[in-house]
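User: Batch of two.

Assistant: Item 1 of 2:
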Amino acid sequence: MKSESSTLPMPAASRKRILRVLLFSLLLDLISFTFILPLFPRLLEFYRGPEGDRDSHDGRTTLLNNVLRGLNAYKHAFARPINDRYDVVLLGGALGSLFSFLQAIAAPVIGRLSDRYGRRKALLWCMTGNLLSVALWVAATDFRTFLASRVVGGLSEGNVQIATEIAADVSDERSRGSTMALIGACFSIAFTVGPALGAALSTATIVAANPFATTAAVSFGLIAIETAYLYLYLPETRVFSSSTPANRGANDSVQAPKSSSDRSGRRRGSRSNGHFLLNLTHFTFLLFFSGLEFSLPFLTYDLFSYGSKQSGRLLGVVGLIASILQGSVVRRLDPLRAVQAGVVSCALSFFVLVRLETEATLYFAATLLAVTSATVVTGLKSLASFEATQDERGGKLGNHRSWGQLGRSLGPVIFCSLYWWAGRQFAYRVGGTGMLAVSALVLFALVSPAPAPGRAGSSSSSSSSSSS
């Protein structure tokens, strides 16, 4: 095996091949993941029906009814009445927060495992967990089994995280932002297409005991295809040193773009953006942004009496604009500039929503949110990837994702509490003020990473290949 200092940059053909495999598999994964999003209201109503009847008729208390009692106690803690139609929305939000919290726990572990044993092996482990999660959903005739599927999924959904690590492995510093933007584009495409497919599949009932088994079965099929595809075509991109304990089979790995400055010359602390600063930015941004996201169904119902169809159209517009931006503009932007544009856009959207009166203004705010969706998380991932050598990249990016998921798990609870306690305008003013603080952090504390020594020549060639 070659020494670290003699490792050559990855050939452009190998890099393109790996990216094709990575992006296609990630698109399958995210489309499968988004199937369930528009189904939450109907799905939870389905479980609430028979389990609520069982609770009232035979006196047995079900897990779902215990959860609903807790949510009702939360609702009744506010002086402002909360419409009962929000019960299912609150339950869906609670499950989403649980999923994010479990990911916050699992992400650092998955990252360290990918550093120790390789990206490919860790990804296939995650795929095994994903298969188990969706199989439980297929068999979920009661809420307890459905909840188990979400718990397993939350602890094993490391695909996006490892895809980010692989993208960093196979890209140099000048092409890093454009490569991460392609991952972001997969998100936008999947969140535009996946929910519509999931809703369409839910109209076909093949198992009376679980009317959503058709959607779940198709989701399982996509994950199975993805797993087989990754097993057959994805090489190892983590290059192991001779002293790495997991250097078993490392000769099968593909050499990632590295130089002596990347592996040994780049010392910890040699960059201006520390991991704590980047993680704090990720946490605070998603704390406010996720609260805004979760509050939109309440806002649009209160002001415009939106149902699921109108809300779906609004979110579809956001996804479409975000995917266009990521495929055209964002991939050409410096990652820091992308983050700056996104957080400022998000702050503006908060203050627009404070004075929201018309649907035209709502769609203007949604356009601002599309800019945010297309830029911030993608840019922060790129900046975080610059701060770690390949030996520690999985762990560092896992920690970065963990902070973000923790913010995503807390944001809906905190923001919606403000919404019901003090009203829409106060909640969005607080959110906008918080996002202004995040903007100040991004504008004045973060800096664009300087190129590593000896990268100028190889970067330009790799950058041109990435845009082809």
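Item 2 of 2:
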Amino acid sequence: MALPQPAMMLPKEILHGTVALRTKPTASLHYSWVFGSNNSEKPSPLVVFLNGLMADKSAWLPVMAGIIRKQHTSGISSMLAYDRYGQGMTENRDPLDCGREKGYGHDVADVVQDLRLLLVQFAQDRLDEKLEDLCIVLVANSIGCAIARLYAQKYPGTVSALLLLDSMMANSDFDWWPDPDAGDFDPEQLPPDVTIEVLREQRTRFAEIFKPDVINKEGLDRRNIAALLPKSDAPALIGPGDQGPLLTVVGHDPWKFAEESLKVGFH
């Protein structure tokens, strides 16, 4: 399969490849990566990009290109973006899905374990480093933020920083809209331009996309995310040196989010 062409010319430093995890030798993951030129720093930095559900790793390529151009004179960080099983350029399904309920094969905990193995192999095979000798920075979007949190929680002391973009609310069932059929619903609280019919339609459309039990194309089971991450502020994450990792959380612009939502049928 040909790699999708981005709207901008990508720097030659961005390379592409596939890898089969040693625990899943029959399925390959597609990834894009950059070999850093500032690896004289110790520990060497590795920036890892984690996808959401709606956008695959191709969305990170312009970001990687921007980082390369910005760091060109000071030395480039090693970077890695990949498509999970059944996502983007990774055509293989997760072998764990075989024999499980259709559409609900592997979950976020499985993804975290795969990520750990991927990083171990990538560090060894591409960077000629041990993973524990790298400074890991996780940059995540949407459900990727839940993956990043769970990874840092499961492997304490290994993540130096997290950048969470448009993070999902892991401990929510996404039932945020007022229910017009509830006994205590007050229609007078609606904005002037929102009718009960519009509200009911939006509740339905929102649920069709974001509810945890909605099946997605990669077969990622989201139904137990609230159990895996029941609190938004706990447990405390531990970074290298038994100190908390640096953490930055960025929310989306509501108008831009509405515009992108229309593209995927959420209107």
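Confidence is low (pLDDT under 50) at residues 1-5.
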